[in-house]
Amino acid sequence: MADSTQNGPVPGGAGGGAVQFLMANKLDTAMWISRLFTVYCSALFVLPLLGLHEAASFYQRALLANALTSALRLHQRLPHFQLSRAFLAQALLEDSCHYLLYSLIFVNSYPVTMSIFPVLLFSLLHAATYTKKVLDARSSNSLPFLRNLLEKLSANQQNILKFIACNEIFLMPATVFMLFSGQGSLLQPFIYYRFLTLRYSSRRNPYCRTLFTELRIVVEHLIMKPSCPVFVRRLCLSSISFISRLAPTVA
């Protein structure tokens, strides 16, 4: 019976398999929809086709949708909530918890284009991965044009993750600048620093840690050239030493 059901015609035509797949994976489907909504809102913020006032509202919607996705993913990773320090420590190891915190940091702040790119690109990558699964459930050769776009996106995943890590790093000085320009809160740089240390220590995504190392190598290479002024070299070396002391210990 199981074999005949699996190999027989799918009810509802070619899309029946996709529908069954979506219904069988309700939590993943909910995250897929929220990620697609995040991509939609982020795109309308970056490209304000409906006006600048509407763009600000799309900025908040994108971060709220990302917070929802992160909360669902965190629930999927840690289904049994406990009000304890051990559970909190375990939750802080999850990337989904990091980006739940990230969304809460920026959702009520002045809209910053840099802050939306990590949300947009992570949502795009995860949505693309799940979309391929939906297409496979529908048919092995369905929508070849869309499949081609998804394959190109997947091929550039490493470069996209490095770009996200760059955004995460350079948002730290941006939050300080926002504070002095009157567009940020006093607590925002300190909370964002905590987020950045979590990203640096991430077990699943080492790109933030890798980018810090690469940036340090590039800066040290430039300042050691004879043409570099001495005061610039000293300033950069002091900054590198200060940032290195702030970096958390990674097991």
From TrEMBL:
Where the protein is mainly located, per its record? membrane
Q: Which GO terms describe its biological process?
A: endoplasmic reticulum tubular network organization; membrane organization
What subcellular compartments does it reside in?
Membrane
InterPro entries in the record: PER33/POM33_regulator, TMEM33/Pom33
Q: Which UniProt keywords apply?
A: Membrane, Transmembrane, Transmembrane helix
Q: Where are the transmembrane segments?
A: 32-52, 99-125, 169-193
Q: Does the keyword Cell cycle apply?
A: no
**GO (cellular component) term, any one:** membrane
Q: Which domain of life is it from?
A: Eukaryota
Look up and give the membrane topology term.
Multi-pass membrane protein
Q: Which family does it belong to?
A: Belongs to the PER33/POM33 family.
Output this protein's name: TMM33 protein
